[in-house]
Amino acid sequence: MSSETKPSIGEMMAATVPMARTLNLEFTETSPERAVVRLPDQADYHNHVGGPHAGAMFTLAESASGAIVLAAFGDQLSRAVPLAVRAEIGYKKLAMGPVTATAELGRPAAEIVARLDAGERPEFPVNVAITREDGAVTGEMTIVWTLRPNAPAA
Description:
The chain is α+β, with helices and mostly antiparallel strands. It has helices spanning about 10-15, 20, 55-75, 110-115; strands at about 25-30, 35-40, 80-90, 100-105, 125-130, 135-150. About 25% of the residues lie in helices and about 35% in strands.
């Protein structure tokens, strides 16, 4: 058995997605069922009222969606590339202090893989709730992802 350990999805995201490193995102849970990512309270990323900037919250939520997509479909990477297609975010309440994004797939992973198996380019939503430490939902985001099949080898 190798003494090397496989990097976690959070470690992979921090290594390959510069914005995740820049914002010091903390990947606290990543599974095919849900991903939880925390944005620490950092003055450099505050808005004009002292909370996390809307762009930082967008990046937090999109990063959580990417983490669950990798967790759910990492075994498909040899034949398809996950890509974000579009996103919509709603800012519900003032966010102050650290915030956490919790992402969940909007459709069962098996259904999405079955569509890929059928030769389709499936699109699927990932729903994300952004919460303050007191549990209040400060934002909600839906990111539509696709699994783009790789071109056949020539």
